[in-house]
């Protein structure tokens, strides 16, 4: 069963698994698919129309369905007054085990992996992609269509205008690369030799295929490096 506060508004094509909690005054507007065991806080808005100037907004009801869909996985925490907007050209997607703090803004067509932490007031513009286990600090802002690699750490108040590679530390305005998130890699069980190899590549500022070639043989990070190189090729 789900626990839904009487003051919450759920309208349109919304499907929901089991074990979900929806708090007071939350608004969920379909098309939205929500998995199991999610916690959605007071005043959260999931399914607002994409904030695109050319989008034809509904006129007969603020809660009317308008957008290309949101898919939310399992065991996510979406705190008070966070916003997740409908897809525009595709679908907005959130994976599993995310911790989304209060007043976070997730715009249209964002794709978020698993076990991501978004601290309070993080702002994600449209089409942002974030890999598994990434952490974004309080008030960080990410420019549209940017990529943040798995395990990356983005500092408080950072303004991200360029892609952030996997397991990088990035902070400042504009955000710049400041080495490897060694603590995060260690917590994920990645061996010291791999941490050192990645650190040396980042210190050399060589994030090309040739610079990262040695890391492609290390199973613990190979898929992440491949995804980074695939992204960089476009």
Automatic annotation (TrEMBL):
GO biological process, one term: lipid A biosynthetic process
Protein name per its UniProtKB record: Acyl-ACP--UDP-N-acetylglucosamine O-acyltransferase
UDP N-acetylglucosamine O-acyltransferase C-terminal domain ranges (all copies): 163-212
Keywords, ordered alphabetically: Acyltransferase, Lipid A biosynthesis, Lipid biosynthesis, Lipid metabolism, Transferase
Domain of life: Bacteria
A GO MF term: acyl-[acyl-carrier-protein]-UDP-N-acetylglucosamine O-acyltransferase activity
GO cellular component: membrane
UniProt source species: Lacisediminihabitans profunda
């Amino acid at each position: 069963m789900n626990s839904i506060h009487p003051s919450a508004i759920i309208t349109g094509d919304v499907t929901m698994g089991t074990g979900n909690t929806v708090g007071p005054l939350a608004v969920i507007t379909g098309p939205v698919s929500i998995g199991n065991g999610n916690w959605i806080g007071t005043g959260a808005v999931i399914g607002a129309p994409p904030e695109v100037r050319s989008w034809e907004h509904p006129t007969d009801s603020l809660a009317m369905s308008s957008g290309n869909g949101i898919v939310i996985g399992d065991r996510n925490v979406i705190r008070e007054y966070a916003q997740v907007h409908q897809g525009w050209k595709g679908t907005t997607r959130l994976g599993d085990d995310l911790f989304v703090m209060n007043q976070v803004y997730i715009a249209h067509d964002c794709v978020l992996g698993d076990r991501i932490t978004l601290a309070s007031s993080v702002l994600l513009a449209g089409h942002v992609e974030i890999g598994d286990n990434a952490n974004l600090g309080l008030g960080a802002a990410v420019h549209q269509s940017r990529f943040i690699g798995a395990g990356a750490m983005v500092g408080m108040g950072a303004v991200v205008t360029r892609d952030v590679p996997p397991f990088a530390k990035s902070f400042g305005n504009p955000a710049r690369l400041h080495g490897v998130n060694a603590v995060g890699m260690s917590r994920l069980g990645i061996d010291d030799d791999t941490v050192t190899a990645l650190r040396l590549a980042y210190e050399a500022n060589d994030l090309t295929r040739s610079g990262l070639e040695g890391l492609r043989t290390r199973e613990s990070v190979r898929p992440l490096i491949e995804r980074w190189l695939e992204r960089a090729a476009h």
